[in-house]
Amino acid sequence: MSDDSELPASMGKVARRELALHGFTRLDQFDGASEQQLLAIHGVGPKAIRILREHLELQSRSLAP
Predict the structure, then answer these.
(1) Which of 1, 43, 57, 62 is deepest in the core (most CB within 10 A)?
(2) Is 58 helix (H, G, I), strand (E, B) or coil?
(3) CA–CA separation, 10 vs 34, rounded Å?
(4) What is the pLDDT along the chain (65 residues), one digit of tens a residue?
(5) Burial of 43 (0-12, 13-18, 19+ CB in 10 A)
């Protein structure tokens, strides 16, 4: 990952592409997003959520409950 605000490169290509299509291109855009909302997006599964959670925690951020 070249910038702390970009989506993690360790996340699958499909998940990153689909999240971007839904307006999620930076980690700070996940404030207020719920795990259920993200899992409803095609290509976003438990692994992508786990990676997102880890990277958000590094920035003292989290997904909504």
Answers:
(1) 43
(2) helix
(3) 20
(4) 334 468 999 999 999 999 999 999 999 999 889 999 999 999 999 999 999 999 999 999 999 87
(5) middle
Q: How far is CA 40 from the centre of its chain?
A: 13
Q: Given the structure tokens 């989506």, which residue do they identify?
A: 7
Q: For the chain, what's the residue count?
A: 65
7 Cβ contact list (under 8 Å, min separation 6): 1, 16, 19, 20, 24, 25, 26, 27
Cα–Cα distance between 37 and 35 in angstroms, integer? Answer: 5
Q: What are phi and psi of 34, to 5 degrees?
A: -100, 155
